[in-house]
Amino acid sequence: MLNDDDEKYLYEEVVRALGVGNPITLLSTCLPPACMDRIPRDLQYVDAYAREAVRRCKADRWKNNPCWLVLLFDLFPATPRSMALKQRLANPPRYALPAESRVLANDTPFLSRDQLRLRTRTLAARRSPKPILLVKGTGKCGKSYSYDYIDHLFTLEELEFAPFRVRFEKDTGLLFGPEQLARDILSQMGVEVPESFFSKDTNNVRWIYDLAGKVLAAAPKGRKFWIVLDNFDGPNLLANTVKFIDALARRIVDSTVHSENFRLVLLQFDPSHLTIERYKIDEEQIANVTDSDVEEGAREIFERFSSLPSDAVLRATLARILTGLPNEERLVEINGRMQELINTLKA
Amino acid sequence: MPDSTASASAAIPIQSADLLAEFEQRLVKRSLGANQIISAERWAFRKRAAVLTFFRPAELTPYGFSLAFEPAHIYSLLQDDIIPAPGMQGGWFMLKAAVRREALLSLSHEEMQRALAESPGYSRTPFQELYERWIAGRPPELATQSLEELTWAAQIAEWLDEIVPDLPSVEQVRRARDRRSVYALFSHLATDTYTGRDDELEKLRAFIGVPSPTSYAEKFIRRVRFGSNEALVIEGKGGIGKSAIAARLLNDYFNADPAVRFPFAYLALDNPVLKIEEPFTFAIECVRQLELLEPDHAGVFEDFRAALSAYHDERLMLDHKSGSVRTRGGRVNRLNQVQVRLFNSFTNVINRLCDERDSDGPSAPLLFILDTFEEAIFQGAERLVGLFELLKFVQKNCPTFRLLILTRSPFLPQEEFPFSHGSIVLEELEKDESVNLLRRLGVKVNIAERVGKQIGGNPLNLHLAARVLKSEQAGSHGIEGLKTSSYLLFSVSDEIIRGQLYARLLHHISDHRVRSLAHPGMVLRRINPELVLHVLRGPCKVLVEGIDDATTLCDELGREHTLVQTDANHGLRFRPDIRVPVLRTLQQDRPKQVREIHLAAISYYRGREKPADQAEALYHELALDESINIGDDHWRSDFKEYLGSAMEELPARSQAWLAAHMGFDISPELRKNASLKQWETITGRRVRGCLRYGRYEEAISYLGERTERTANSPLFAYEAKALLELNRSQEARAALLSGVESMQDSPSRGRLAELFWMLSLIAEQQKDFTQADEFLTNAQKLAAQIADPLCLLQILVQRLLLRRNNQYQPDGSEAIRRKLAEHLATISDVELDQERSLGRAAVTLLGPSYTELFATVLKTVGFGEYANSEILPWLASFGGLETADAVYKLFQERAKPHRSSPDPIEKRLEYHIQRSSYSKFKPEGIQETPDVALLVELLGEFDSLDGVLWAVRSGKHLTLLPLLGRFLDSLPLSLTAANLAGIDEYRESWESEIASEAV
User: Fold this and answer.
1) Which residue has the higher pLDDT, B291 or B3?
2) What would the DSSP string read from start to end of A35-88?
3) CA B293, B294, B296: angle at the middle one, nearest 5?
4) Closest to A197 (Cβ–Cβ): which among B19, B570, B997?
5) Phi, psi (degrees; rounded to nearest 5) at B424
6) Closest Cα of chain A to B315: distance in Å?
């Protein structure tokens, strides 16, 4: 529904807009009572209100008309970017087979990845024997796009589980311990907890395991989530954070309740840290994107945003996308060029 | 795939030239990127923010500017430079690391200090204070810092690296942090007040073979490094100080000379990620710690990780229904081989660490500590086999490996602990040591002597006594009114004394309502305002005026940290080490009140949905000895973590009930108390443990404890499995037939199908193919009524496999193939994805003549472990492509040059060329054809056979299917070692606990 850039943009605009007065009063001017009922009243800071408002509106997808996200745009002055985004969000995109699409609902290209498409459906089953999915691949091969795909399925109501992502940022990794990860997960689930939630009553090992259990147990009743942990890897990743992720995985695998309510998707995580038997973990090894994948994606982009052009134009476009690709970050470049194709057609 | 009815605005015809021009323009713009010019204002804010750990943008002032800026302007200036501060609520941000470093580099040291001094009202958190000390060039000693401080320091060091001179390097700080993180696992167990046990510490050092940490004489170090390759067990009562002595030993070496230090791993078995029955979890945790302690040996750990990855891959292959192993015993053997390879790699880690530590001296010892070992003993000897195998392997192959076990008494009997070992039984502290400890805890010397004499030398009790003495005056004999001997003048147990001390602590709670809630409210394990209102108010006779009042009471109780901890559900939990001894006296003194609380708690918790609540309802039912009325459907695996510690609080029958569900072993006496169903569960678990390690006679012996079985007993199948491995197939058959007889009218179709499946395997083994097929036919009838289609799939595949035997060629094979095809077509890809090897087996038997089905199913299940390179040597053996070189040449000619995989197919092909085994393959009748060349070409493009299937699925290249079918047909295919698929819903949860791929 919203890609990262769009979400960040919208969030920042809402933060700015709410900063001039009482956030609840301001939000009430644009959002309907049904939405306002879901926004907590006791948040301490403007950015928390902005985050909650965007999250709740996004979670409602297109269930209401106009969709709640669109209403948020009334909070701030229109700009070319906001108008374009608002227009895109006005109506849900239509797909014959959402799971097979090569263009996601947030207008991001998503090529190939047949394994992920199948594994996602397996994982979405109520009682999946493998509630953990490990997405593996080298360098920048598109692991992070897995989240966009999962979010795409949720947006189009193909998934019962609501996905959210926590990203590991190299810049903050050295300070990002189990408690910070727990806080991020709780926040994404829309759960407020007191500070005592994080108190260390037991030893370090047990505390990490208990914290993982507490986080899962704190999920709102009746809700199901895909927890997507992105890029938890590298020298800045703390040993205790690794243990917390292992504990989360163990908790989900061992519990009948948690294995029904949670899926854990690990994008780029060293599986040698996991103490889970491997037959309880599903894997996707990301394959190379081939020229045929690009052609398939380009055809779909043309069909979705315009109409299929002449063969000559299609060939010329493909040639432009596939020529002079760097060996490093090849997929990043392909996706960037495909995104520009989408932007061109949309313009 | 777009919807054909996509919005009308989408159907705008494209002006080709415009489109391509616009596209080109965008791509060019993209490749150039935006070269930003950083404004002076932005720089000023960057500089100010660079000396702050976290900040709120609106509160920043620009460095070197006197102008005031609107918050929105500051935010827009910095928006690309900042990121949210981790774990901080309320608009806190930090500079991106690269931006911070750039800003710091632009500041002189004095300017940094000025930027700090001029920052008005910024938050001086401990992190910020530490940052300022580093900026000032005066960081605190790394060795004295806590883990939290070192975590901050690691970040600060990265920010200031080579900017502020003479600071510890990033690597130094990281190492200090990592090392401290291992010590943080146990350092709290031996605080500054630790005293005594000098003799035991000396024995421990002698066992390890290390000198005292204050010794620096190298010769001495070498001389004492002989130690003992035996294990050492330290046992004693709870609270006596077993963990503390180990922690003290390790803490003593924290700041010791590196020549005296030794590597170690501290593993507490109450850590739930350590699975007793899965030794690899112990290896992972041990290596995790060693990696943090010994960072110079990165290569050693990399090797282990590679071995671990191979271990998992091989176990995954064993988990496939179809494979090359033809017997269950074969799977167990293969699993053992796989496991030994991992053990070997683990031992290599230890040996190399020990050897490389002292290149010119004897190998260093490595201390491997298993704390709270009683947790493992609880689970039964069969579960410990794998862990003991690991430890024996390491001990045998590493002379400097030292195994230290810390456990409550009693330890395992000698026949169940396969190590020669020494023992230290920790007794109470000597009187002088007790007094010393009390003094360290703040008790005056004359009182300490009296109290030490009064309550003995249990360290936990001494700690409690010191706490009591903070609120009470001591009398002439110590703490007044404390009963330390019975009326027969025998000393009362430590636990009774502890119970009294806790009760005294309770009585010092000033608010009488809070006091009453704690005692007898301690019958509950958890407490929150609702429980106060609905459960405790009546039995405890406390006046509570509504939920607000109850909340106030809970808040008050929450301040009594000696008694309560916070609970996962935001409530409170009585500390178990206090509650258990108090509960004993409560049950004796106030049985009626205790029962009332249990009943009120059951009524409160029953019907609630959260596992924690349901577990509490169950706990109170068990505590009332109601287990006879509790059905198995009351149990869920989630309860384990809530009820694991409750065993010792429960009456005997309830213990048997709980043990059956928890997977605990219990004494023969308690087993006699168990119902038949509970006994089957307890025995079934033990038998699985035996089957996993090939202890078949033992399994039969356990099964012989009782002859009767429940109607759907899982034990029939386990008995047959054990008997089969002992080559007692007639008895196995008899056990299965007896099971079939007892289940004839049972609704458990899955169990019955499993028995027929096993009977067919026995008949096949005995070359009675007709009978085997009859049993399969019976299983097929049952499978047709089982919801999971994989059960029927496996049976149909097996029926066709039977017919591959030349000695069994009955009519009807084609009908079965058709049935298989029909059935396969009804199975969804998601279902097939659960058992990919079974799907592969099915399409192998159907062959590519079922073109559509073959391609679709194969696309779903893929080639599994054969997807990458195994087809290359197979292709290389074709006529016309005599050698792998020819394939390679063809590959080079046809394949396209791009591929970013680190393990591209050409590399794997080179690997095969270097191997000679490929030439042994000689499938006849296949010539080099355009399809062979096409396949090689597609392998180049798609990098794996599974990728090739993508191209075939698209409707193209269907001519490749026969070739792929031939390849599939050449792969090993047998189901005779497999359990029946698709009957999980008929199994009990414990049946998947131990190595399900082999048992």
Assistant:
1) B291
2) HHTTS-S---SHHHHHHHHHHHHHHTTTSSSS-HHHHHGGGS---HHHHHHHHH
3) 145
4) B570
5) -125, 120
6) 8
B116 contacts chain A (CB < 8 A): no
CA distances from A31 to A66, A67, A69, B991 (A): 11, 10, 9, 52
The rounded Cα B643 to chain-centroid distance in angstroms is 19
* pLDDT of the residue at B217: 53
User: Which chain A positions have a beta carbon within 8 Å of B30's beta carbon?
Assistant: 336-337, 340
Coil, helix or strand at residue B847: coil
Cα separation values, B535 from B519, B525, B531, B898, Å: 14, 12, 5, 71
Which of A130-134, B63-67, B618-622 has the least mean pLDDT? B63-67
Q: Has residue B364 got a pLDDT over 80?
A: yes
| Interchain CB distance below 8 Å, B568 and A217 | yes
Chain A residue nearest residue B950, CA to CA: A114
pLDDT, tens digit, for every residue of B875-886? Answer: 766 544 555 556
Smallest CA-to-CA distance from B438 within B477, B468, B413 is with: B468
- Chain A CB contacts of B944 below 8 Å: 287
Q: How far is CA B519 from CA B158, B507, B541, B582, B585, in A?
A: 53, 9, 11, 9, 11
Of B609, B157, B207, B11, residue with least CA distance to A257: B609
H-helix segments, B125-197: 126-135, 147-160, 170-183
Q: Is B309 within 8 Å of chain A by CB?
A: yes
CB-CB under 8 Å, B89 with A44:
yes
Which tokens go with A274? 């996991």
Does any CB of chain A come closer than 8 Å to the CB of residue B942?
yes
| B568–A contact, CB cutoff 8 A | yes
The answer to whether B875 touches B860, Cβ cutoff 8 Å, is no
Share of chain B above pLDDT 90, in %: 39
Helices (H) and strands (E) in chain B, counts: 46, 10
Query: How far from B553 is each of B526, B527, B542, CA to CA, in Å?
Result: 14, 11, 11
For residue B916, is pLDDT > 60? no
Q: Indicate the pTM of the whole model.
A: 0.85
Q: What amino acid occupies position B330?
A: G
pLDDT in tens, B476-500: 778 877 777 644 545 667 777 877 8
Reading the block at residue B635, the tokens are: 């149990």
CB contact under 8 A, B86 and A316: no
Structure tokens at A181: 């990860």
Interface residue B35 vs chain A (CB under 8 A): no
User: Higher pLDDT residue, B852 or B123?
Assistant: B852
Do B11 and A101 count as a contact with CB atoms less than 8 A apart? no
Interface contact B585, partner A, CB < 8 A: no
Per DSSP, B169 falls in state P
pLDDT average, residue stretch A21-39? 91
Strand A281-285 versus strand B264-268 pairing type: unpaired
Closest-CA residue in chain B for A342? B23
Distance CA B390, CA B276 (A): 11
Nearest to A213 among B11, B292, B641 (CB): B641
Burial class (CB in 10 A: 0-12, 13-18, 19+), B7: exposed
Give the chain B residue nearest A130 (alpha carbons).
B834
B568/A270 touch (CB, cutoff 8 Å), yes or no: no
- B252, B198 in Cβ contact below 8 A? no
Q: Hey, is B426 helix, strand or coil?
A: coil
Alpha-carbon distance of B211 to B879, in angstroms, equals 70
CA A304 – CA B710 distance, rounded (Å): 62
